[in-house]
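Annotated sample (chain length 190).
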Amino acid sequence: MPVNLGETPILRKPVAPPPPMLPPRDLVFEVEQFLYREARLLDDERYQEWLGLMTEDVHYWMPGIQSRHRRDKKPRLDPRRMAFFDDDLLNMRRRVTRFLDPTAWAEDPPTRSCHIISNIEVELTDAPGQYRVYSAFVNCRGRGEAEEYWLSGRRNDVLRRVEDGGLRLASREIVITQTVLLAKNLNVFL
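Output written by the structure step:
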């Protein structure tokens, strides 16, 4: 609880977060490799294989970000507001089909993309075979001769183990650091 000394409140006592249930190292390695492989598939435009990493009920969500004061108590991320992505598997397949269509002028010549994934944390959940995964990303896209756009942010994923023993992405929440996208388009998955 803050103590008010003039205008700036000072915390009385720091509070340590509860210790997480640490997952086995083999699981952490498997999740890291999953995320790195996913980034490579996206960078190589291997979208059909990338879509194969999704569950049938995947939810892929990137809300629009509003810059608001701390005293504004509305939820920071609100599913009722605008989103850049709010997709299920069918909508993601439609986006990929559009990216690859020869008449997609925004992708001819194709965007050159590099995904950098970092700060990966894996948490066990109450659901067997389902894991919460946090990560940070930077995406650099180059277009034409001189266009270059950067996106950075954090992801909150749920990965689920499927029948064949592999992992699949069941949901992704993407929170970018930018409130205004400076790129001319958003022809990228994050």
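Annotation: The chain has a mean pLDDT of 88.
Annotation: Strands lie at 2-5, 8-11, 54-63, 83-87, 112-124, 130-143, 147-161, 167-176.
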